[in-house]
Write a structure and sequence with these properties.
- The structure is a single chain.
- This protein has about 260 residues and is an alpha/beta fold.
- It is built from 10 helices and 13 strands.
- The strands form 2 sheets. It has an 8-stranded mixed sheet with strand order 5-4-3-2-1-11-12-13.
């Protein structure tokens, strides 16, 4: 039987509206592992944020693609790859944030912090993800920053950030946008893991704009039923929504589980 690497986004994919992974999804993923497949998380979240979801308690993952592909952890959750911003880029992000009167957070591998005092947009965003807000800290030149987040009111266009050379801006479903190193995305991180596993066929699940590269490049790209239209158009298959156990439905559709 051909072995695949199964890659799962978290929010709106593994985690439905109640932010609790279903028992049937846990059983299905463990079933994949029992058949010799590899299973990975591929998320925009950082390690500390993923810990708060308790997904690492429910399943022993074969790898974690974090920070939209800028940080990779192996099955022991040790760092095997990091793609960090340079100092100039980080300072440009901070400068634009200050000029716009907003708040940004900077993410290291195992911790994160806001540059400005956390405000209402920060609170709303982290309540949306059911996670603890980062505390305020100070950027130092020698820090390895693997992603940043800009917080802004709904409807803000993030255009000032798009003018920063070397970053990609991915607005999210709450009061924030991920600021990612240009050229980095989830599938680029997944490719690092494929070499590590010596597996080259992938089945990827996602629902949002930061899943586009992952779904387009996968051997089988699967969009969740409630996902964005752009993702559904490029997917090989559109499954049921996350709240309807869309992962299990798709795995059964392709015959990966019974």
């Amino acid at each position: 039987m051909k072995k695949y690497c199964f890659c799962f986004d978290i929010d709106g994919t593994l985690l439905p509206g109640n932010h609790k992974i279903s028992i049937s999804t846990i059983q299905a993923i463990k079933n994949l592992q029992q058949k010799g497949h590899k299973v990975m998380i591929a998320t925009g979240r950082n390690y500390r944020s993923v810990l708060g979801t308790h997904l690492l308690d429910d399943i022993k993952w074969d790898g974690l693609v974090l920070n939209n592909g800028q940080c990779i952890l192996n099955e022991k959750y040790d760092v095997i790859y990091v793609e960090a911003f340079d100092d100039k880029t980080v300072r440009s992000i901070i400068e634009v944030t200050q000029k716009e009167g907003l708040v940004c957070s900077l993410e290291k591998v195992f911790e994160w912090f806001t540059i400005q005092p956390p405000n209402e947009d920060v609170r709303i965003t982290h309540e949306f993800f059911h996670e603890v807000m980062p505390s305020q800290g100070k950027y130092e030149k020698d820090m390895e920053i693997v992603m940043a987040i800009a917080y802004a009111p709904k409807g803000y266009n993030y255009e000032p950030y798009r003018s920063i050379e070397g970053i990609t801006v991915n607005p999210g479903n709450s009061h924030y946008a991920d600021l990612v190193k240009k050229g980095c995305h989830k599938y680029k991180g997944i490719e690092k893991c494929l070499k590590y596993f010596d597996i080259y066929d992938t089945v990827c699940f996602g629902d949002g704009s930061n899943d586009l590269d992952m779904i387009q490049n996968a051997t089988i790209g699967i969009a969740m039923g409630q996902g964005i239209d752009e993702l559904k158009k490029c997917a090989d298959f559109v499954t049921k929504s996350c709240d309807e156990d869309g992962i299990v439905y798709a795995l059964k559709h392709f015959g990966f589980i019974e």
